[in-house]
Amino acid sequence: MLTLPPSVRVFLCLGPADMRRSFDGLAAMVREIVRGDPLSGHLFVFFNRRRDRVKILFWDRTGLCLWYKRLEEGVFKLPVSLDPSVEVTSAELSLILEGIDLTRAHRQKRYSRIA
User: Are 107 and 17 in contact (CB under 8 A)?
Assistant: First the structure.
């Protein structure tokens, strides 16, 4: 399972992204769609129209990094939302990348501190 520090947030862009885009094109999508800062250190996750490819853009304190995965079979199941992007936990991202449909997963009750 993917474990990230609690300070790192994960944003899924739910609309299709052109997988020919690289660092600058995806950074522009972060600013336009997520309304975020690509240099924040958070993860910004993009999927293609068929949902069989994913790119994750992040800043590692010295430069932008890009992680890319292509499925040989099947598709990624994304959460449904009217918003163009959603924030998920690192655990939820791991489940998505492993092919688990979050709409069918059941989360047990846990303590959460109200801010």
Answer: no
CB 4 within 8 A of CB 90: yes
Q: List strands edge to edge, sheet with 43-47.
A: 64-70, 53-59, 43-47, 10-16, 85-88
Tokens matching residue 109: 């009750």
Summarize pLDDT for 7-20 with one digit per residue, the tens: 899 999 999 999 99
* Distance separating alpha carbons of residues 30 and 10, to the nearest angstrom: 12
Which runs of E-coded beta strand occur in the chain?
Answer: 10-16, 43-47, 53-59, 64-70, 85-88
